[in-house]
Structure of DNA helicase RecQ:
Amino acid sequence: MPPETLPTLQRVFGFPGFRGVQADVVGRVLDRRRTLAVMPTGAGKSLCYQLPAVMMDGCCVVVSPLIALMHDQLRAAEAVGIRAATLTSVDQNRGETIARFRDGALDLLYVAPERASSGHFRDLLESARLSLFAIDEAHCVSEWGHDFRPDYRLLAPLMDHFPDVPRLALTATADAHTRADILQQLGIDREGLIVSGFDRPNIRYAISPRSNLNQQLADVIRANPGPGIVYAQTRAATEKLAEALARTGRPTRAYHAGLDPAIRAKNQADFVASEDMVICATVAFGMGIDKPDVRFVAHAGLPKSIEGYYQETGRAGRDGDPSVAHMFWGAEDFARARQRIGEVEPERQPGERQRLSALGALVETGGCRRHVLLRHFGENPVEDCGNCDNCLGSPDARDATETARKFLSAVFRTGQMFGATYVEQVLCGQSTERSLMNGHENLSVWAIVDGDEVGLIKPVLRALMLRDALRTNAHGGLEFGPAARALLKGEASLSVVVPPKRERRGRRAGAA
Ligand code: ADP
Ligand code: ZN
């Protein structure tokens, strides 16, 4: 690395030194070697191109998918005195920016990927000296990634036109498969891959089935007095939750893309300034906001992928202080996710399916959550982190294969058309008018579950849905999915985690 690197880092950015893999990445870029940096959110990706942009001759072109994010980055860069500009459809000063670029008066030029397709843009790039191509959110180039953007495919041909300009691709979220794809798509050698540590040791992970969501979220809120984010799946849900959770006595706000822009901006600003606010938001919230003291992130439903989960929970505890990430999931989340997968283009379905089953493994495990998470990002973590629900609560993982078979048999014998409640009644032998009329009380599965085993029925149902052994039809009736057979034939087993007894609930109710 050139000797002026560290002094420039200190002078321009005011940082005493590099963090983690930043030094490796910057070193490679200054050596003009093509690089893919996989670094978790908050690890300091921007510096990896901003510092070289200041040090190298010419202008660094940064491709970034979100205009709002670009403007945040622009403000941050200008704040430390970097000569930067954005070139997007919403910018009024495009003429001026182009003139500055041509005059060599810019260190950084942020552009959206769709520019790459335009011949004009290529001509523009030819009209000045380029130092570096920085491709932010590089997973967007991969169909294996969770956020494929076709425009990103146009970047490689554009960059190929400037073979001497080095390339730096950056992403926070990429499993092994996606990484390999990014390297290939963007023409970067395998040796150019730099991955930084993903562990966030101060975040305690907890995942539980949803039962009484409002109560469960209120419990999380009461246990964590600092600011927190509750992620919900729909806009309507964010508003309903914000209203319901206000009863905890904490200030609450909703945040989603459908809100009036002024209200949305105010809610975000209030949250950033607050020390105890709970914001109920869709996943759009959090990108580009820098609030280091978020104490908890709660998911009211299943996130889209492990990548999404990691990124969203990663908004907690950026200051390094203890923080909590709590996910509440339901079997219907998996059913809905599978339905959505059925609707995407066929060539993307295998990737989506793999992503969902990785998420299922995280949710289902009775082992260390952090272990599953870090393994997903290609790390080799310890077996027992000591800071997740399973490591702390020694969950009771029980073999429930027999109960699962009983459940499947009951679904089968009643004709694969009844909902979960009815099947449960059959298994427990709860006589109703319906069961009498249907003649189901004479079935061999009638009342075959009793005693302790009753407590296993709901966890077993969730596990069966999660694995796609059971599905719901359009009318809410249960029917077999592809994984049912192996269980019935005795070729697969199923264990469920029985959550540790909840003395917590009682204690808190007493305190409240
Ligand atoms: P990312 O894009 O990877 O999520 P950012 O580039 O936004 O991360 O950086 C996260 C935070 O870390 C920012 O507040 C940034 O100023 C800070 N930061 C980056 N590099 C360093 C460093 N070497 N030393 C101290 N702070 C740093
Ligand atoms: Zn653990």
Notes: The longest helix spans residues 349-364. The radius of gyration is 26 Å. The first strand starts at residue 35 and ends at 38. The chain has 22 helices and 17 strands.
